[in-house]
Predict the structure.
Amino acid sequence: MDLLIIRHALPQRVEVVGRAADPPLAPLGHRQARAAAEWLAVEDIDAVYSSPMTRALETAEPIGTATKQQVVVEDGVAEYDRNAEAYVPIEELKAEGDPRWTEMLAGGYFSEEGVDPVEFQAGVVDAMERIIAAHPSRTAAVVCHGGVINAYVGHILGLAEYMVFQPAYTGITRVRASSRGHRSLISLNEHGHLRGVE
């Protein structure tokens, strides 16, 4: 089967205290989501899954509409920062020289949230494998997050690092999964559909 793993579109910046930040998409993010949906409308997609987080759900909705599929929520592909009290797009952290950017470069993204990276990756792999098993010889799309994509790609490639690349907003990574258990990375971070959007 073919698995399309899609990062959510650009969310709004949210800085809150006392509860988990779960930002909706920014106006540009909505345009990115529509562009991804138009791009994927011609593909024979049999199922669309989404992380329960708002930025993923709002990205998945137009994809579900374009492919005539009901979006199914899969908790196992939620991001490692699901309980964080702030969400600042990584590009903004970098541009502002925010200390959190330096911390991320040093590998502190998991420790800051109190998440065990081994457990996080195992949960992601389990969720992706459940989706694969549910759609033999078919195509499923999963809208999720950069950390989730890195965790699964790293698993397929047998990498020791947990964060190896920065997926584009609505970037598409394709995995081919055989019934014998082989997993092949077909493409990484396709984002040609964003030409002219930004």
The chain is about 40% helix and 20% strand. Residues 117-134 form the longest helix (18 residues). The mean pLDDT is 92.
